[in-house]
Structure formats: C-alpha cells, structure tokens
Amino acid sequence: xxxxxxxxxxxxxxxxxxxxxxxxxxxxxxxxxxxxxxxxxxxxxxxxxxxxxxxxxxxxxxxxxxxxxxxxxxxxxxxxxxxxxxxxxxxxxxxxxxxxxxxxxxxxxxxxxxxxxxxxxxxxxxxxxxxxxxxxxxxxxxxxxxxxxxxxxxxxxxxxxxxxxxxxxxxxxxxxxxxxxxxxxxxxxxxxxxxxxxxxxxxxxxxxxxxxxxxxxxxxxxxxxxxxxxxxxxxxxxxxxxxxxxxxxxxxxxxxxxxxxxxxxxxxxxxxxxxxxxxxxxxxxxxxxxxxxxxxxxxxxxxxxxxxxxxxxxxxxxxxxxxxxxxxxxxxxxxxxxxxxxxxxxxxxxxxxxxxxxxxxxxxxxxxxxxxxxxxxxxxxxxxxxxxxxxxxxxxxxxxxxxxxxxxxxxxxxxxxxxxxxxxxxxxxxxxxxxxxxxxxxxxxxxxxxxxxxxxxxxxxxxxxxxxxxxxxxxxxxxxxxxxxxxxxxxxxxxxxxxxxxxxxxxxxxxxxxxxxxxxxxxxxxxxxxxxxxxxxxxxxxxxxxxxxxxxxxxxxxxxxxxxxxxxxxxxxxxxxxxxxxxxxxxxxxxxxxxxxxxxxxxxxxxxxxxxxxxxxxxxxxxxxxxxxxxxxxxxxxxxxxxxxx
Length: 646
Ligand code: ATP
Ligand code: MG
Prior knowledge:
This protein is α/β, with parallel strands linked by helices and 646 residues long. 31% of the residues lie in helices and 22% in strands. The two termini are 30 Å apart.
C-alpha cells in the first residue's frame, strides 16, 4: 500500500475549525469522560426538554442496551428547519439539480418550512400517527426531503427504499416494517431514462398486504394508473391544506427511522435509529469532518435511499443550517463531466462521493475533468468501500488539483455517522487509509479468537469498544438478530464485520469484509490490497478479488478485472497483470486466475458484491443467495459464461 503522507493543505489549516492539537485534546476527553463530552455536544441541538441523563449503554452479551440522552425531548424537523428561520429564512436550504443539466431549483429555509408542514398535514389527514411506519419510494426530488422531514415533524418512522429497487425488494421492506402508507411518484428520472415508480409500487402491493394509502407525487406527468380508495395524488390532498403543523414532542429514544442495509453480505437488516443521539451525532460529524462553515455549498452525491443520504444530505447538513445540494441524476449523464459541471455551476465547496464513482470517472478518461474550473472546491470526501490509493491520487490531483483536503470516511448504516475519518485541518492523510477515529469512537483490532491486539502495528477484525450516540439501537422487529449479528462473536464489543490493519502511526486501513479475507498458503490477505494493486496498473479501471478452493494453497486468488475504456483483453495482458501484482505486493498474492469482466455485480449503492463473485469462482451457481439488491442482474450471466476454468 502507498506509504505517502499528505499534510493538510496550508490554506485549510489556516482557517480550520479543528487543529491537530484541538483534535487530540477533544478526542482524549471524549473517551476519558464521555458523559461530560456528550453533555456539552448535546447543546448543539435545540431541546424541548434538555436531557439530564447522558449515557446509559451496555455491550454485555446478551443484555445489549443502548440509550443516549434518554430523558431529553426534541423534534428533528424543528432542529433542521424552524430554528434557522430567525436568521436565515431566505437563505437556501436545498439546491436541487435535476437529471437534465438545465433544471434546478433553490429552496429557502422559509419555503422548506411551509412545504414540510403541508406534507406533514397531508400525512395526518391520511391517518398517520406518531410511531407509524411510512415507506418512502421516491426519486431524488425535493419531495423526498419534504416527506422525510414531514415524518419527523409528526413522529412517524420513515423507511426510505431506494428508487432503483425492484417491486420484490420494495414489497419485502414494506412487509418487514409493516407500513400502512407508501409515498411514491408517478415516475423518476435517471440518466435520461424514466423509472416506473408507481407501477413498481402497484406490483409490490400484490405481495404487501397492509398498505392502506399510497400518496403519489406528480413528477414526470406521464400517465399512470390510480387505484380508487387507495391511491391519492399529493397535489390534490395538499390543496388548501394548512401551512403550519405543530411539531410533535419526541423522546430522545423514540424511533426516528428504519433503513435497510445495502445487502452486500446477506439479507438486508432493518437498522433502527432513534431521535436524539442520531441527530447530535449526524450534525457534529458533518460539521467537524467537512470543516463546514456557514455559507458553504455542500454536495453529497448519494441517494437519500442510503444512510449517507439520510445523515449527510439531509439531517446533518440541515441541522447545521447548511445549503445542501440534492442531485437527481447520475455521474455520466449527459457525459462523464456532469459532476464537475455541477460543481462549477453551483460553486460547490465541499464534495462527497463514493469510490465506485471515482473509479468510473477515472476510467472514462481525464479529458472530462480537465475542462472544469473546480476552484470552489475545498474538501473532498469518499465513502462506501475502501478507496484504492490509485483512485485517491486521481481524486486528489484531477479533482482537488492538489489543494483540497480529502476525507476518507469509514462508517456504516449501523453507525449513523462517521467513525474513522481524517479531519481536514488536523489529520495528515495517507491514500487508502481512513486514518483516525472520530470523537468518542474507540476502535479495537481483535484476532480471530477474540483477543484484543495491543501492539500498534497489527491486523484483524475491527470492533468498537464502547457506544457512541449515533449507534443503531436494534434491528427492527428482531432484537435477537441485532444482538447476535453485532455482539455475539466478540463479547463486549460491537463487531463491524470489516477487516482492518493498523500501521505504526496508528492509522486504520479497512481491508474489506472479514468474510472476504483470503488465506493463501497460510497467509491472510485482505482483498482490498490485491484490488488496489490491480487498479494501480494503467490499463485497469476496476478489479474485484475473491478466493476459491485450491488443492495446494488452500485458497487461490481469483481476480475479476475491468479494463479502461479502449483497452483490449489478451493472454499477454493477463501475464502482465500477474507479474505486476507479484511486483507490487509479492509472489504470495500472485493471481491464479484472471477473468476480464466488462461489468462487476454491484449493489444499487455501487458496492461490489463479492459473495456472488465468490460463488462464480467456486463454480457454484445454484445458490447465488439474495440478488434482489443487485443493480444489474445480467452482469452475473456474463460472468458465469466467461468464467476462468481451472
Ligand atoms: P450489508 O450490511 O447488508 O452487507 P453494506 O455493509 O454494504 O450492506 P452499508 O452500511 O451501506 O451496507 O456499508 C457499510 C460498509 O461499507 C462498511 O462495513 C465497509 O465495509 C464499507 N465502507 C464504507 N465506507 C468505507 C470506507 N471509507 N473505507 C472502507 N470501507 C468502507
Ligand atoms: Mg454491512
């Protein structure tokens, strides 16, 4: 792995919210005196009743219980909207950028307030009450934000399902959380195509039986079917409705939302987050990690269907009174310069995206980014998978022009917010490392037997020693699954499921899922390391590595490789790549089999689904497992057809 160290750019250090000394001092306080630290941090939120009890948590198996600020009362929508009205009513809360480059809208805090209140009143008319679950299946239009905030206004629990999911996946999620109301749109737009959202809901409701009302937002205006008695047009329901809705008083531990994990490793889990701790954590992490200052234009490219969209498009930024950009489209429409054009158009200061997008744009060629100005950018973020040092360097050089701070944020749906991440003005970065823990987060590396590794330089599974306010509270309707998934294997710890290496400087490097660790001739290796070596080759745009049973070595190294646009697969190139990996990492990591793949199976959030690649490599196609969260199932057929024989 790359051993280069980048010092925080001087420009950023000179104006930073958090210097290195401040980080060190606050981090020490946060772990030595969590009560005191979080009592202070809770003040960033407007409470209807201030909490007097701060932390009440135990990871003791099987009695795991997590409560933060448990006697506090608040309302999330008030924190995200109402409290900014005094000073910033006419400032932009949300910049919406449509799928087509000439469509956008600026929504002020005052407008947001009226629209969210109206949405909340419509939900009430439909019979939604505090504690009810509402499924939201919307494209990236402002109504998605209104709907989510409206739920928080009246104390309903939203479950947002990404608009790219199939009817089956939607039905499963509606049933799992028992929602009686679904909010959708006639159609969505993505990359110049329409997505038949309402038709998908109709299909899903053949298998989901508890739904009484479907609220439909008119978006494209194309014809759709409406079912009498069940389906309601939003604009009709909202006609003449009151523009004020009194916010519900919520206890800090009342459920805020349910969100299903991406399903990279198995059946999605209904992660439950609660109100007070989540909001404190989302807003603090957003401000500190992005070195956010009032007036900044902030853009997170995720979809609100993922936790990144929840914490870092909506709740964190709006709680901080930020201007947050919401993008309906995709990175390569109309072409691969779209992200950079949007950055220039809206003068974006903070930009947050995923390695999968960075690798794809890198693969498309530098010409798309070279024409852009990008001088407004100050902070660049990444999340979702380990970022290969090669992609990190490209991001830094071509997008950041060497003057931006890069924050590689490691976290999970389960953690609610950032866990391991650099701070722009405080942490020197190393490409490919998420660097250091956030306040209150105590990472520990354990070996397979559960022994804590005390030396600084070590490798193993990544666990967290104590609770933080943004932590999930349970798996909805299945507390046993919560306890067994996260607290049973390594008693007394939260188990992340990720493998990790800590280097001599105490920097953390996520090596991939624990299930993805290879054991080649007795040597344990993370898949991320071999993948990064492959991506570092100038003809490779993306790579995924899995193990397969090997008579001699125990496990062999099977590599799926996507080439840069314009490169041709050949046996020569396979040989070249094999030698390249031997040189970059060592003979032990040498690929046994290389398959050129035009596409890799990815989740809808863009993560490579290695469990499917493992099955293909093992010649075991009968049991591919849950593929409902795959973005493009046809990729799998191609992989099976062209697999490498041995
Ligand atoms: P499932 O839990 O259903 O398998 P998932 O783990 O992909 O799905 P998410 O919660 O969206 O669902 O993703 C969290 C995971 O993403 C982390 O556990 C880690 O494996 C990976 N990840 C996220 N950010 C980073 C990062 N900056 N570096 C390395 N890995 C990351
Ligand atoms: Mg996970």
